[in-house]
Amino acid sequence: QLQFLYFIVNFTNSQNMSAENLGLTSTFNAPDGKAGSWVEGPYGVDTVMVHSGNTPDEKTGAVLCPVYQSTTFVQPSVEEYLSKGYSYSRTKNPTVDALGTKIAALESGKGCHLFNTGMAATVTLLTAMLKTGDHVVITECSYGGTNRAARVLFEEKFGITFTFCDFTNLDTIEKAIKKDDKGNIITKLIFSESPANPVLTLTDIKAVSELAKKYNLLHAVDSTFATPVIMKPLDLGADFVVSSTTKYIDGHNMTVGGCIVWKDQELGDKVGLFQNIHGNGMAPWTGFLQLQAVKTMKLRVIKQSENAQKIAEFLQTHPKVDKVQYPGLKSFPQKELADRQHLNGLHGGMLWFEVKGGVEAGTKIMNTCQRPWSLCENLGATESIITCPAVFTHANMRKEDREKVGITDGFIRVSCGIEDADDLIRALKKSLDAL
After folding, report:
1. DSSP 196
2. Per-position b or e across 90-105, b if 16+ CB within 10 A of its CB
3. Using CB atoms within 10 A of its CB, is residue 124 exposed (0-12), middle (13-18) or buried (19+)?
4. 240 and which of 85, 104, 220, 308 could share a cystine (Cβ 3.0–4.6 Å)?
């Protein structure tokens, strides 16, 4: 079954773009038809994940992109400043750029800026696109750090207002767009997250992007949970993709990072300016590690999705489980949208559930579930993780806001890794049976 799914993913994701546009460059500038040149496309997404942005070193032939662990770059002369493209690693670094080329190709973007954390990416996007007096329509359920930044930093410090609303309802989003006393629209940005962390509600990215264009607004999508393997927001009309590269791009609990991908160069340049002002770019060593890890992202996401489906189906049958949500289940409230918007029949490695007995029982599950599960923060990694969002990842949301979107103290968030599903289910069953 997995081999069949793997074939389908490869077949439906071939890239009908030139090698150059996908960041696939010839070794030693080899002429067409010679070793080192690229065979004619189209190219499968696996090939892009492995090779985009990663050309063997011209001097040594090293297969991997070098780690350019250098603060500064020598210039030929004053007149030829930046003729080689680099001056100072706060602004640009070759290793980090190689990763950016790869991610941009995977997201169908024109360019990508990389950051030292996912939150650095989110905060930079908001500072680059907004000013005092502007308004943002944002999903009521997002990563806790995004919620806190909106409330504590941008509203309280900078006078930018936010309306948190239900992004499963297009009419609700449209009604949240604001005008000033003169009838001028003051909303500048719609910020969605799909699937939403941690409740997994989906936003119809195409419909919201069309709504944004109707009012001349920008639309940014945090698609950390989806990855470009499952969804490509830019292809659906969004202006920005925001992602925590800490999660599925790294996928090994090694590093932290973030990215913003765009199609419009002017918008990308604006993000780059504010990234340089903030000084929050990704470090070269992090870029190198993520450049290697992302090569296997699709393989991991397929396995994680398969594990999540099996675990969700098991949880549905256990008498101690009160509720389980996963976009791959027939019972998922937005199943039609999930099947229409997610690529290749994949729905990711994230699910959540609640058990009978409320908060006390939910806490007991998290405190007793044995290995191979790990009780910790993070998600999207090869290791399977159980998290208590109310305490770990969303504690910085107001309690009433958490409860409004369904994040109770007994809410159990699950990030499925690539272990054997039977082992993961056996550990969960043992804890559930003991309730």
Report:
1. P
2. eebbbbbbbbbbbbbb
3. buried
4. 220
Query: Using an 8 Å Cβ cutoff, are 220 and 242 in contact?
Result: yes
Question: Residue 191, Cβ neighbours under 10 Å: how many?
Answer: 25
Q: With 0-12 CB in 10 A as exposed, 13-18 as middle and 19+ as buried, what is 216?
A: exposed
- State the residue for tokens 């360019």: 111
The answer to whether 413 and 395 have CB atoms below 8 angstroms apart is: no
Per 3-state DSSP, what percentage of the chain is helix, strand, and coil (rounded to 5)? 40, 15, 45
Among the listed residues 84, 36, 42, the one whose alpha carbon sits nearest the alpha carbon of residue 56: 36
Spell out the residues 6+ positions from residue 29 whose beta carbon is closer than 8 angstroms to its own.
Answer: none
User: What distance in Å separates the CA atoms of residue 299 and residue 302, rounded to the nearest whole number?
Assistant: 5
Q: Which residues contact 22 (CB under 8 A, 6 or more apart)?
A: 15, 43, 48, 52, 105
* φ/ψ (deg, to 5) at 165: -145, 175
Q: Determine the Cα angle at 344 with ends 342 and 347, to 5°.
A: 50
- Whether the bond between 327 and the residue before it is cis, its omega within 30 degrees of 0, is no
Phi/psi of residue 89, nearest 5 degrees? -70, -10
In contact, 202 and 195? CB cutoff 8 Å: yes
CA-based torsion, 52, 56, 57, 63: positive or negative: positive
Report DSSP letters for 383-396, one per residue: S-EEE-TTTTTSTT
The C-alpha atoms of residue 187 and residue 175 are separated, in whole angstroms, by 11
Positive/negative CA dihedral, 9, 15, 19, 25: negative
Q: How many CB atoms lie within 10 A of CB 168?
A: 19
Residue 30 CA to its chain's centroid (Å): 35
